[in-house]
Every structure is written in C-alpha cells, then in structure tokens.
Design brief:
Elements (H helix, E strand, L loop, with lengths): L5 H13 L29
Length: 47
C-alpha cells in the first residue's frame, strides 16, 4: 500500500470536486460518513 502525503490527498480531494467525480474519494471517506449543511446560512453579526 502506498503512503500518501497530505499534499497528495489535498490534490485528490480538489480534483474530485473540479471533475465532479466523488468516486475519487471512496477510499478516503468512511462508508458511514454523513455530510450536513445548514440552510439558509447562519447570519453573522459582527460586534
């Protein structure tokens, strides 16, 4: 098994998004991973 550097993983992650190809991430993300988003975006109130 090849050891990947952080840079290798980041390049692969970016490539997956740019190519709209989530299959490139199959061995990086656990099968039970859940992605959540907050909609609408929370309002930020600067002090």
């Amino acid at each position: 098994m090849r050891v990947q550097t952080t840079a290798d993983i980041m390049h692969r992650f970016n490539r997956a998004f740019l190519e709209h190809n989530p299959a490139l991430l199959n061995d990086l993300i656990a099968p039970d991973c859940v992605m959540e988003s907050i909609q609408p975006a929370p309002k930020w109130d600067p002090l």
